[in-house]
Design a protein that fits this description.
It is found in: Cytoplasm. The protein is α/β, with parallel strands linked by helices and about 350 residues long. The protein starts with a strand and ends in a 19-residue tail after the last helix.
Length: about 350
């Protein structure tokens, strides 16, 4: 199947075309195109995403992005077999742009369309190979994902531990009680006077701390790291950063404090995420462990998770870097599995509904 994916859940206008085959026994994906228009420059001045501005930018960019995705895939609309679009969770004004565009195209092209869960899409980013790579090539080992799988989903709006029993069968065993990990990065970065988005800014400052070999020591809490459950909490870390920074700025220059504070913030978040995932793995004994979501791009987290589960000899997967952030290729892949579970009809454009608070 050739699948057009559309993603507009937040501030990235994304479209992708993938070739999917193999069914549930040997699913295989070739990413033919994967485009994303970022709105970071628009929202940076506000320190976060402004929903109405995001939807306006989506309206301007959605059709050109889809056209370019088809062109780069070297396909015409008549060759598309299925359209997959994010229907939630996300910002309602942004979601509506993607959904209504997908519905209009499905009606005009006489193609089936399926709405998918954005978080589920992040999970399936682990099934994707880089653009241009044939997953069946003898030069590569196709990703063998065995169930049950344990997935740590970490993004700006979500931090969850999910036990995946099979395709489409999930059990949430842990979630954040307040701020998500990505949100904690954004908010602490803002407290430190760093640019939005906070994750890359914190990581860059943390690298300075290591490169300069600074001896400046800061200790921050690891919230809920020793709790008897698999839940998370990062609001206390944010508060600790606020008070520590306000105290230290009276004595030291920002160029000294920011790298040290960023290093400790990154360490604190990483240690909590790894510890909780490890605790869940020991209890549920998964055959595969994986991470997904925007924070999965964090180099420190990827290295610590790889080291931890490599030592335990549990297969560990991380998405290719282009598929960590919001993208349409993962939405297309998710649409494939959803379509296999329930065949989508040509009049499906009538049935898709937006759900800003959609649960996994």
């Amino acid at each position: 199947m050739y699948i057009l994916g559309i993603e507009t859940s937040c501030d990235d206008t994304a479209a992708a075309v993938i070739k999917a085959e193999g069914g549930l026994k040997k699913p295989s994906f070739s990413v033919l195109s994967n485009l994303s228009y970022s709105q970071v420059a628009t929202h940076r001045k506000f320190g976060g995403v402004v929903p109405n501005l995001a939807s306006r930018d989506h309206l301007k960019k959605i059709i050109p992005t889809i056209k370019t995705a088809l062109e780069r895939a070297r396909l015409k609309e008549k060759q598309i077999d299925l359209i997959a679009v994010t229907r939630g969770p996300g910002l309602a004004p942004s979601l509506l742009v993607g959904i209504n565009t997908a519905r209009a195209l499905a009606y005009a092209w006489k193609k089936p369309v399926i709405g998918v869960n954005h978080i589920e899409g992040h999970i399936y980013s682990n099934w994707l190979e880089p653009i241009g790579v044939n997953p069946k090539s003898e030069a590569r080992n196709p990703k063998q994902i065995k169930f049950p799988a344990l997935i740590l989903i970490v993004s700006g709006g979500h931090t969850e531990l999910v036990l995946m029993q099979n395709y489409g069968k999930y059990k949430i065993i842990g979630w954040t009680r307040d701020d998500a990990a990505g949100e904690a990065f954004d908010k602490t970065a803002r407290l430190l006077g760093l640019r939005y988005p906070g994750g890359p800014a914190i990581a860059a400052e943390a690298d300075k701390f290591k490169i300069l070999n600074l001896k400046f020591k800061i200790t921050l809490p690891r919230p809920m790291i020793n709790s008897n459950d698999f839940d998370f909490s990062f609001s206390g870390l944010k508060t600790a950063v606020l008070y520590a920074y306000q105290d230290l700025i009276k004595k030291y220059a920002p160029k000294v404090i920011r790298p040290a504070m960023s290093f400790e913030v990154q360490q604190a978040i990483t240690e909590v995420l790894v510890a909780k995932t490890l605790k869940a793995a020991k209890k549920y004994r998964p055959k595969t462990v994986m991470i997904a979501g925007g924070v999965a791009a964090n180099k420190n987290l990827r290295e610590k998770m790889t080291e931890t589960f490599g030592f335990l000899k549990i297969p560990f997967l991380v998405p290719e870097m282009p598929y960590t952030t919001d993208n349409a290729a993962m939405i297309a892949a998710c649409g494939y599995f959803r379509h296999l579970a329930k065949k989508t009809s040509r009049d499906s454009w009538k049935k898709i509904k937006m759900s800003a608070n959609l649960k996994l």
